[in-house]
Model the fold of this input.
Amino acid sequence: MQIIELFKHLVQAKSETPDDGGLLNFVEKYLSDFTAIRVDKKDVKNLFIYKKFGEGEHLCFAGHVDVVPAGEGWSSDPYEAIEKDGFIYGRGTQDMKSGVTAFTQALKDVEDFDGTLSILLTSDEEGEATHGTVEVLKYLQENSMLPDSVIVAEPTCEDAFGDAIKVGRRGSINGYLTLKGKQGHAAYPQKAINPIHQISNILPSIAGIDLDDGDEFFAPSKFVITDIRSGMEVTNVTPHELKMMFNVRNNTKTNQDDITTFIAKHFDGLDYELCLTQGSYPFVTDTDTTVVANIDKAIEKVTGIKPKHSTAGGTSDARFIAPLGINVIEFGVRNDTIHSVNERTSIKEVQDLYKIFKTLIQDWRK
Done:
């Protein structure tokens, strides 16, 4: 297949999480000279496929074939891969079948490499991600097969293709706070403890506040309140409690203990309960590592652009890879239409992404 033919084939497969749309079987057959390992669990499909060319480093390309639901309002069928004005329209064109297409074709066409090349694919990235990449990594760790470097081909570019790679990601801490009061009649406020009144004095000191100063890679960790609810939806009863939810996209300077201390300072003397959960942990890959240096060179060689090193955005499966001591970065097409109606990617971006991955493999230097 040619690169765009392959791309359209992947887009046309309806692979809404956790359905892989048959794509993992397809990739396994497409790379028939690679060794395939299936790590399927429950309704999630996972594939690790590799080929050892030499005794050097193990470079892995990682990604997902699952997509979010298409939604309503498309100008064309989201699974037809419509070509128009130099773009391919369809669900998953940016996130992230463009990336999967590019590295799959690059490995298909590789002739030589001083080491091992592999692909890690899952159908459970857009969902809970509990039976996807984590299960493959567990298998690889148990069998001493973990790669040295990983490139996750998520869409990373902002204004122009080639302008950004992700060298790290913020973590995500979710908070659930319950402020206890005492229910009573609104006509006798002195006999009640109104948690709404209590928190009203606190909110200006916590809402949208930066918890640290950030650094060269990360923006400050910000306290973002996402939900507050209380009361019985009546006008004559003061509530007995208030519930507040918040999120902190934390960098390496702020952790759960810091947030607990922050809450304790502002809610001192009040009756409250706090629960924190960590969805992902922050990480940053040293920009002097081989994978960063090589992807920088390949991008500049193909596009003429020197990419910036960013940690912005949400989470990806890189959050499972970095804690294992693997150098992981992300690079892919522009991300201006991900998850949106009429998601699209330009044909040139897909072709150039393939060229970058092929150049990276050909010019790999330790």
